[in-house]
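Anyone have C-alpha cells for Glycosyltransferase family 9 protein? Sequence:
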Amino acid sequence: MRILFITATRLGDAVISTGILNTLIRQWPNARITVACGPVAAGLFSHMPGLERVLVMRKRRYDMHWLDLWKACAPTKWDMTVDLRGSVISFALRSGRRLVMRGGRRPGRRVGHLGSLLGLSPAPHPTVWLNEADRQAAADMIPPSSPTAPIIALGPTANWVGKIWPTANYLPLWQQLAATYPHARPAIFYGPGTQEAELARPVLNALPNAINAGGRFALTETAAMLGRCALYIGNDSGLMHLAAAAGTPTLGLFGPSRASEYAPTGAVTHWVEAPGPEGHAPIAGLSVERVASAALALLRQTQT
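Reply: yep, here.
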C-alpha cells in the first residue's frame, strides 16, 4: 500500500491534518506513506509510523513547486492520494483512490472539514509522533509539573502581527496566575529565527524565572516539551495547535483570526476572543483578566 499525503505549508494547518493521517496509519498499518508539505512543517513527520519520505515543497515563482512535486511523484503508482491542498496534481498522477479537499475557505472548523474527507464525524484529534530521544530532550528542559507547582507554557508569537496579544500583558497575566499558584513556573515557547526571538524577548525579560523553550529545538522536541506542561496559553499559531496535539490543556487567544475555524482541538482545549466582530476584532482588546480567568478555569478542570 503506497499513500501520498499532500498537506499544508503552514505549521498550524499541517498539525491539524495529523488526525486524519493517523487514522490512515491505523487503517493500513503496513502502508508506506509519502508526505508532501512545506519546509516549516517537515519535521512534524520525522517519527511517523510508516513514513517512506517527506517531500518538502519550497514555494517557487509561477507555482513551479507543483511541477517539482509532480516530477517527484509521477514515477510511483499510488494506491491512495490524499490532497488537502485541492490541487490538480492528484489527477495527473497514477493513483487508485483519490481524496481531494476542495480549495478555498468555508465556514466551520477546519478539523471538521478534514474529517469529513474521510467520512469521520467527529473528526479525530491531531496528534504528534515522538521518539525516546525527544522525550529525553524534553525531560532535560522541562521539570516535572505538579498540581501545586505547574509548568505553564506561554506562546507570545505568531506569523502575523495582528494575531499577537500585546507582550506587555504577560507580566500582569503571570502575576494573576501566581496569586493562585505561587510555585508555578513559566516556559516560553517560540519558533526559530530572529523575528520569533525578538517577539519572545520582552516576555523572557519580564519573567526572569522562565524556561527559555524556544528557537533551537526540533518540532518533535518542542511537542515533547509542551506535553510536559500543565497548560499552554498563546496566540492562534502553529505552536498553539502543536500544544493541543501534544495533549497539553490549551488556551488559544484570538483577535482578528477566527476561532470558529481554527480553535485548538485536543483533549482539553478552550479559547477566548477579543470583543468585536469575529475576524475583525483587535486582539489588544482581549483583557488580562479574561485570559487569567479562563486559564485558571482550565487548570482547575485538569486537576479534578
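DSSP finds ten helices and eleven strands in the chain.
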